[in-house]
Amino acid sequence: MTRFDVALATCRVLPEADADEAPLLAALAAAGASARALAWDAPDAPFADAGSVVLRSTWNYVHHLDAFLAWVDGLGARVLNPAALVRWNHDKRYLADLAARGVPVIPTAYVDRGSGRRVADVVAARGWARAVAKPAVSAGSFETRALDAAVAPADGQWFDAALRARAMMVQPYVRSVESYGERSVVWVDGAVTHAVRKSPRLAGQDERVSEAVPVADDERALAFEAVGAAAAVTGAAPLYARVDVVRDDGGGLQVMELELIEPSLFFAQGPAACERLAAALAR
Fold it and tell me: Is 62 within 8 Å of 91 (Cβ atoms)?
């Protein structure tokens, strides 16, 4: 029997504070919904008592992937975003699905685990002056490193070791992240609510985020295009999304990531997004 309306799923040990949690709990209370924050990896957490479960700061899932996906599946229709989206979105090879549907995405080379492929060869084959390598399943800046075209021996050894453990991906380093910045466009319940500018973040670095910035028309359109493509691929509609976009050297817009599992939604910069999400959950 449901004893409270909404569980906000977090984890027992957060790698960093979740600035969204307190505002969302307050907004849910104001909307008349009872809510609790519970750790997905706590065996005795009473998720069974919740009417719905919202994935918010389950930021250790990449280290316990099979257990996490099984837990999400076990929640059935109560989980938001839906399990079909989680299973698709947890592996960044979803970018290839977006590209296949005509969504402009950042060029990406995928390297299978255990393939033994050298990152220097990947970068050279694409002709990139600088690149960024990261795991295909990753959160935050886990195992993310920038590489020069002349890959340093230490970087090559790091990639070789990483590839023995997991599939990797390599993308060009987009110079506009240092000026225009990577823009995170927040989408909640069918509307773009706000955007922030993020500075480049590599392994071991803290995230640096601006105040809210204006959302350009093409950024708004691309956010809707990416979210719509995700729904078409999976057959499941997201309640919330964060679309991280960059501009290439010609000013064209590309999706860097489409975050549908546990993205920070920057409620401090966009309080209306928090209220909109709480209202949707209260409904």
Answer: no
